[in-house]
Sequence to fold (278 residues):
Amino acid sequence: MSLEQTGCLWVVATPIGHRDDISARAIEILRHVTVIAAEDTRHSRPMLLQHNIDTPLIALHEHNEREVVAAIVRRLEQGESVALISDAGTPLISDPGFRLVRAAREAGIRCVPVPGACAAIAALSVAGLPSDRFVFEGFLPPKSAARRSRLEALAGDLRTLIFYESSHRVAESLADMQDVLGAEREAVLARELTKLFETVIGEPLARLAARVKEDPNQQRGECVILIAGRGEEADEKLAEGQRVFAILREELSPAKAAKLAAAITGASRKALYERDSG
Ligand code: SAM
Fold:
């Protein structure tokens, strides 16, 4: 498709850290469109100027998306070309843009992806976890009760789980993950990808949760958490956990027995406790 294509919505990925992680095609398109719809114009302007892009910007964020979408679709219908970008990475991936793309497609406007960086995919590519099947869950709920129930719904999933998390919640999220998914479940924390302090740590959930809790540096910057899907060894662990739990349960409360059985066998404390109470 030529750059002169009018009435076209280009959905353009921008870097997630390293300034050069933007394609030559993306730069060309951003230079040639009539207008760039950006999540935060003040944030994007410096990145665009680094690549000699001085195309006019309009703001499109979650608070004005409904109103601005209609105006952008009108411009597209009049033959203008518009690019959509977000603060970082691929628009629509835990970022605004879904309503614009849907409205544009409904209006018969051609929407063209210009692919590039995405933190979830970048993290998966270096995590060393199975990548043939995975599920992207975006951000977990900020409150622990809602977060735990979302994790419970995912506990039996065989696919690798990918989450975005803010740095100030990463420690508590990992603690909930350990509790709900089990101490031994393989996990990877991918932080500050493509940036100066990039770190990728892979450990069983209990070790990773403890390390992050103890080290404030691991609670800084941007991060992706990846968790291996439930493996067959988890079923074996649960069976062993249940055996130990049944013995301890004769002397202890369900909560104490589940805690000890989980520590001894690596089975999920929650799974043991719930099987007893349910
Ligand atoms: N659209 C973006 C993408 O394609 O990845 C994601 C936007 S979402 C609002 C921001 C979240 O993505 C961050 O809170 C973090 O979880 C993750 N993220 C973005 N950049 C990252 C980076 N350089 N390293 C690790 N995680 C990152």
